[in-house]
Amino acid sequence: MSSFRNTLVPVVRGALAGLAAGYTALAVAELVAALVRPATGPVTVVGGAVVDLTPAPVKDFAIRTFGEDDKTVLRFGILLLLALFAAGLGTVALRYRRAGALGVLAFGIVGAAAALSRPDSAGIGDALPSLAGAAVGAVALAATTDRIPAESDTSGAEARARGDRRGFLAATAVVAVAATGAGALGRWVAARQGRGAEASRAGLVLPPPASPAPAPPRGAQLAVPGISAFATPNRDFYRVDTALVVPKVDADTWRVRVHGRGVTRPRTFTLGDLLARPLIERDITLTCVSNEVGGPYIGTARWLGVPLRGLLADCGVEPPSRGGLADQLVARSVDGMTFGCPVEDLMDGRDAMLAVGMNGEPLPFTHGFPVRMLVPGLYGYVSACKWIESIELTTFDAYDPYWVQRTWARRAPVKTQSRIDTPRPFARTPAGTVVVAGVAWAQRRGIVRVEVRVDDGPWRDADLAAQDTIDTWRQWSYQWRATPGGHTLTVRATDGTGQVQTEQRTRTVPDGASGHHSVFVTVA
Predict the structure, then answer these.
(1) In angstroms, rounded to a whole number, what is the distance separating the alpha carbons of residues 259 and 263?
(2) pTM across the whole model
(3) 152 pLDDT above the threshold of 50
(4) Do you find a cis peptide bond into 370, omega within 30 degrees of 0?
(5) What is the torsion angle, in degrees rounded to the nearest 10, for the CA atoms of residue 4, residue 6, residue 8 and residue 12?
(6) Helix (H, G, I), strand (E, B) or coil at 54
(7) Burial category of 110 from C-beta neighbours within 10 Å (exposed 0-12, middle 13-18, buried 19 and up)
(8) Are 206 and 256 in contact, with CB atoms under 8 Å apart?
(9) What is the DSSP string of 467-520?
(10) Greatest CA separation for the chain
């Protein structure tokens, strides 16, 4: 038993030394990243690389399973793996000091490579945080493991054992305190850098629109408990993107460049330039392509922005139908994400815009402050570029944007869909009249009919709420005479072209889910 204890204690101390060294490496790397560029922290760049390399079905599973917490889960997973790796290095360093140090440096090289591979990489300086953190981490590992006896034999000297223990604990404590200080300083520096962006948003006064949106018609919002609100508050609006750290862009220094094929008058616009143009205000429903049938990634907001059609025309852009040289607009965000949108759709008269406001206030940071792009009728992965900084005109043959490179479709019009909001799946309800209600959407086409089916019975017409515009969802309700037992409720919609929502179930990849939404309820 004593021999086992004498073997185990150094191993445990080695693991603790490795954890302390890993903690130090991360803390120093984050501090250096705050000084260089906050987006270059090792967890952020490695997480971004993981997202890029993850197959589309796995990403879809993560969004479906974890929702908007998918990035938190990813960061936790990366930190857990790093902790296990660091603990393992600490135990290896007990016998092979050089191998332990090399392992820490390998961690730095991986982080540096990930930083340089990011689409928004600013050059070799982006590798500095990971390399600096690894170098300091290797020194910390050596300092702590040197206090652990290389041999497990502690055969004689109780005093020596106590001295070893005190030396190890002191070295580990010093390393941990220093790392905590470095981490706190890094967070303070990063927070100070973000204050300029926060101040620019707080001080931004949006001008009134030249073309205001009318109030939604009376009856657009049904008085049915459990149904989605017609207008989605900013705090509840879905967020699906690949940014592990939300960019905080200073509105005073922000620019967007319009350039590329067929742009006869390239220009760079400031936020002031955009706000000086006539603004439009519109109620528009946005939908994520990762939204499963009946899913939550959809919402309606009142957007304020600059019409893209006029902006592009002022730069000399013509749509392909009028002889334009470009058929694809590639929007790039400050974090390097790319979105590819058909130029024809942007200039066909729909209210495509560079949005600056959302529900009466400047865009929240999570939704693209200071400027984002949105295009009614298209899924977000081709059109909803947040934190936009570049608009390049090109062709679909010449360039595949981020998601197209990962097996998603090049063109992505929103499909006709409907959802049951109430009753909830597996709800228990008393017999009698039960209100079944929800929403339906087919942006650019509108909804003209919604039908409900109980079990395998006939389709019955639901009552439609007032339609705001063809670019917004439409509420509906159905009075169901519920009888005791288990029942399956199913909904389908018909859009303004007469197209009936298909019952064929498909997953979200490559161009959005399809199929009828159903819920099972029990009537007592």
Answers:
(1) 6
(2) 0.86
(3) no
(4) yes
(5) 170
(6) coil
(7) middle
(8) no
(9) P--TTS-EEEEEEEEE-SEEEEEEEEEEETTSPBPP---B-STTT--BS-EEEE
(10) 92
53: which residues sit within 8 A by CB, 6+ positions away? none
In terms of residues, how long is the chain? Answer: 524
Question: Residue 215, Cβ neighbours under 10 Å: how many?
Answer: 9
Strand partners, 355: 305, 372
CB-neighbour burial class of residue 477 (10 A; exposed 0-12, middle 13-18, buried 19+): buried
Distance CA 451, CA 74 (A): 40
Q: How confident is the model over 255-292, as pLDDT tens digits?
A: 999 999 999 999 999 999 999 999 999 999 999 999 99
User: Which ranges of 54-157 does DSSP label H, i.e. alpha helix?
Assistant: 56-66, 70-95, 97-117, 128-145
For residue 270, which phi and psi values (nearest 5 degrees)?
-90, 170
Angle between helices 2-36 and 128-145 (to 10 degrees): 150
Place of tokens 């479709």: 409
For tokens 């100070």, what's the residue? Answer: 192
Residue with tokens 């006939």: 458
Q: At what angle do helices 128-145 and 70-95 cross, to 10 degrees?
A: 40
183 pLDDT tier (thresholds 50, 70, 90): confident
Residue type at position 315: C
Query: CB of 421 within 8 A of CB of 225?
Result: no
pLDDT in tens, 431-456: 999 999 999 999 999 999 999 999 99
Q: What angle (nearest 5°) sits at the alpha carbon of residue 258, between those of residues 376 and 389?
A: 75
d(CA 121, CA 335): 9
pLDDT, one tens digit per residue, over 76-102 is 888 898 899 889 988 888 888 888 888
> Would you list the DSSP string of 265-334?
S-EEEEHHHHHTSPPEEEEEEEE-TT--TT-S-EEEEEEEEEEHHHHHHHTT---GGGT-S-SEEEEEET
The Cα–Cα gap between 524 and 507 comes to 34
Task: Give the Cα separation of 488 and 516 in Å (integer).
Answer: 12
Strands 267-270, 474-482: pairing is: unpaired
Phi, psi dihedral angles at 521 (to 5 degrees): -130, 155
Q: What separation in angstroms does the CA of 378 have from each of 141, 272, 446, 464, 517? A: 52, 28, 14, 24, 21
